[in-house]
Amino acid sequence: MLDTLPPGSTEGTTGTGATKGTRATQYRKGPGAAGDNAGTVLLLPGFTGSKEDFIALLEPLAAAGYRAVAVDGRGQYESPGPDAESAYAQEELARDVLAQAAALREAPADTPGPHAGARLHLLGHSLGGQIARAAALLEPRAFASLTLMSSGPAAITPAQQSRAKILADALAVLSMDVVWQAMRAMDPPPPEDTDTGGAKAGGGDDSEALRARWLRHNPAQLIATSKQLSTEPDRVAELAAAALPTHVISGESDDTWPVPLLDDMARRLHAHRTVIQGADHSPNTDRPEETAAALISFWNNLSDPTT
Fold first, then answer.
1. For the whole model, what pTM was predicted?
2. For the region Disordered, what residue ranges are annotated (predicted)?
């Protein structure tokens, strides 16, 4: 089910200053596990999403030696946030990520392996990918690599922009619960990332858990980030110039950023490209085993000078 963590997971807060209350879910192998210091992975969820969207990835990543840390961003689910839209400007959210990264690199005493947080990989899904990109552009040396999961080069498609505007307009005048009911009545569910969660990964009906998560999002965060998704400029050339090892991963179909657009972005970035067969916009929940394997292969190859 959606909120069921694998054994060995821990929940708590990470970050400093403005991000001190960020909720994080962490899963890692205990001391003595083979390859238990491969590195740390910071996982950023997408629009309307939360750290729980990565639950199905935590155990396989940890089994491969990676400390996997999934977070709720400012104003998402269990991380509190202000009621002003200005608090969710993309640069503000990107600086939160840099603060989280700094906290993880401190490698607390109970972290298995020597300096397990020193090699830090950043992954963002959809909206999270654009925030991750902004963080990497602010401080590219903070990360060993960047993975953009189902996250395109610029704004979402015109059809998705229309749906995002409908949502933002509704949130400005209606309660979160009323908007949730309206979304669930629509077919397909709007917009962008609302298919993320554990129903696909864990089986069963997670509608109530998804509703609980939705109700705890700050509406200002949703309004501000929906506007960002609709106006994001193309920053691919900037990212390419940063020379940060990059992985573009997606499902075989995507109505938020078409797959050919993601293919072209990967080419422009000289990035590693993975297409997960049988997955749509959320390969992390559609095909978690295949997605985890692709991520692990990319990160391991970065550590192997012969590949």
1. 0.87
2. 1-35, 185-206
Domain 9-303 CATH assignment equals 3.40.50.1820? yes
Report strand pairing: 22-27 vs 9-14. antiparallel
Q: What are phi and psi of 260, to 5 degrees?
A: -60, -30
pLDDT tens for residues 28-87?
Answer: 443 334 445 799 999 999 999 999 999 999 999 999 999 999 999 999 999 999 999 999
d(CA 125, CA 148): 6
Q: How far is CA 257 from CA 4, 21, 242, 253, 262, in A?
A: 30, 32, 23, 9, 7
Task: Count Cβ neighbours within 10 Å for each residue of 252-270 and write b for 16 or more, e otherwise.
Answer: eebebbebebbeebbeebe
Phi, psi of 251 (to 5 degrees): -80, 180
**CA distances from residue 166 to 162, 218, 253, 267, 290 in whole angstroms, order as listed:** 6, 17, 24, 33, 34
Residues facing residue 39 across a β-bridge: 66
